[in-house]
Each structure stands twice: as structure tokens, then as C-alpha cells.
User: What shape does this take?
Amino acid sequence: SAALHLEKQKAAERQAEEFIKELEQEITELKRRDTELEQLSHTEDHLLQVRVPLFFHSNAVHHRTALPMLRVFSLSVDVTLDPDTANPLLILSDEGTQVTCGDTEQKLPDTPERFDDCACVLGKEGFSSGRFYYEVQVSGKIEWTLGVTTESSNRKGEITASPEDGYWTALDSPSVPLSLKQAPQKVGVFVDYEEGLVSFYDVECRSHIYSFTGQSFTEKLYPYFNPYTNDGGRNSAPLIITPVDHDK
Assistant: This one.
């Protein structure tokens, strides 16, 4: 009986030691990550190097705390809207950098690449490698969706904007508001094709909004814009693709 008690005690001690060792390893790992993030906050190419901390396991990661943000200007690309993909309700500016939703459908050919139900439009140029970044002004809008989509994604009927359907997007609307202290005025979209990363930033606050990580891209990705209907004038402000301000 005494021997059995001693054996149980030793087993309990071994378990406790293993548990303590695991905790110590976890603390060491967290300290290492904290140091990395601290170093990244002082680096000159933060947007390039920052990765969503490893202790977030979900594919879609939402940061409530602001991370330092420094745009990597060599990665900014010129994006213009592709009228051949635009829903017939959408009104595009002549230079292809602004889009708003009108009240009357234009008579346009219903080609496979054109959105026929959702008020969406894509950028002209697709990307199949590397990293790219662009900014979109959303001020004055109460509803919008931005992101990227695949070349073969569905454009007809109701669109389910999910990664399973080839859409990686951030949405702000009265029914699904972004959980931020204040609505962003300008949103930065950053894609690292090889890393499978799509990140959204509040440009003015220099803070991270949302990221999709660990994605597997196999075809061209196109910038995606949905200004939504103008809602009787309440959402009539355009989405505006803006040049990246290199002086900020």
C-alpha cells in the first residue's frame, strides 16, 4: 500500500514537472514573439515583415489592437477599374479610379466576366505572384466591401464573398459593422501571393484591421470593389482608388 502510494506520488510529480516544463516553453515562446513584434514596430518595412502572431490559429484573424503600420512604397501598384466587369448599375469615372452606384441600369453586354446582380467591379490587372498594395478611400460611405477575388470566381447572381468561393474581403455595413473605434476613411489592401496573406489596414490610423492567413492561391487575383446601392443618397459617396502618399 505504501509502495503504491509512493508510485502514485511520483507519477503525479512527473506530470507536474512536465506541465511546468510546457508552461515554461510557452512563456519563452510568447516572450520571443513579443520581442519580434517590438523589433518589427521599429523597422522601416513593417508591412512587409509583420505576420499575424502564430498563437492565432484561425485562417481569418481580427486584431482589435492597433499594430504599427508603415507602407512599403515599392509594393504599391496602380489599380484602375475594369468596365467590362462592372454591374450595369455602376458608374465609373473616366480615369477608372472611382465607382458609385446609380439608379438606372445601363444597357451593357452580359459577358461572363460581368457582375449581373451584385453591384461589383474588379480591377483591370490581375496578380499571380509577389506582393502588392493599394489604397481606397471609403469616407462618406455607410456600406462597402473591398478585397480580392480569383479570375474564375462566380460573377452571376448572388455572390457569397468567402474564401471558399474565391473572395477574400473586408466588409463594413450597418448590419455587419467593423469592430473598430471609428470607421476608417481610407483602407489599404495588402496581398502576399506566395505567403497566402490578404491584409486590410486603416491608413489614417496606421492600424491593422483584418487578415486572412495561410491561404493557397493558384490563379490570378483581381482587386474587388463593391460600393453597394446608394440607399436613397445615404451611401452615394464613391469608392476612390487613391495614390499611395509617399510622404506619410
User: Anything to note?
Assistant: DSSP finds two helices and twelve strands in the chain. Confidence is low (pLDDT under 50) at residues 42-73. The two ends are 75 Å apart (CA to CA). Residues 1-46 form one domain.
